[in-house]
Amino acid sequence: LAKTTQPISMDSYEGQEVNITCSHNNIATNDYITWYQQFPSQGPRFIIQGYKTKVTNEVASLFIPADRKSSTLSLPRVSLSDTAVYYCLVGAPGGSYIPTFGRGTSLIVHP
Amino acid sequence: EAGVTQFPSHSVIEKGQTVTLRCDPISGHDNLYWYRRVMGKEIKFLLHFVKESKQDESGMPNNRFLAERTGGTYSTLKVQPAELEDSGVYFCASSQGRGPNEKLFFGSGTQLSVL
Questions:
Q1: Which residue has the higher pLDDT, A66 or A98?
Q2: DSSP code for B72
Q3: How confident is the model at residue A93, as a pLDDT?
Q4: Residue of A nearest to B4 (CA)
Q5: Is the CB of A96 less than 8 angstroms away from the CB of B108?
């Protein structure tokens, strides 16, 4: 099971772009990279998922370099409502895969 | 489409009492997961159902915890007797299929406080 490492916390200001990097040095060939967002008093919510290169949706972008040993979640022009904990998960389909959440990155957006 | 619902949202009980948490997954989702976050720590996996069968219960702390999913629909997690260290937020999640390319849909959690 690929272990992930993320910063414990980050601070930003409204309107800035925020990039959160997750390290997963022992990622396996079949592993996908998935990010979840968790607001206070709520359960985690799926944001984005990728396997390689770049993925973009209406919420965020996910950049994955060629070696896939890390990934970067990019939040464009954050607002106060983006204050949340962001989790990076890595795993492969099938078998005994269980989504495993680490401590995540606590992002605080300031006015 | 209704999301994952959990009941109750909060529960305060005394040590030694019994508490039952309920989770209603999204209709049609065969996979149901229970997780727990103890204050200040990461979200920890407890167990996984596929329909009514327990696929993996390696995260269950001890035999004071009992999870069921009769009929493969809603699930209950019973703690009996509750201890102080059981306090935390219990999350339920469901997914249609299984694997990291499947989205997990979470409920809002049950905040359990054992006094």
A1: A66
A2: G
A3: 62
A4: A43
A5: no
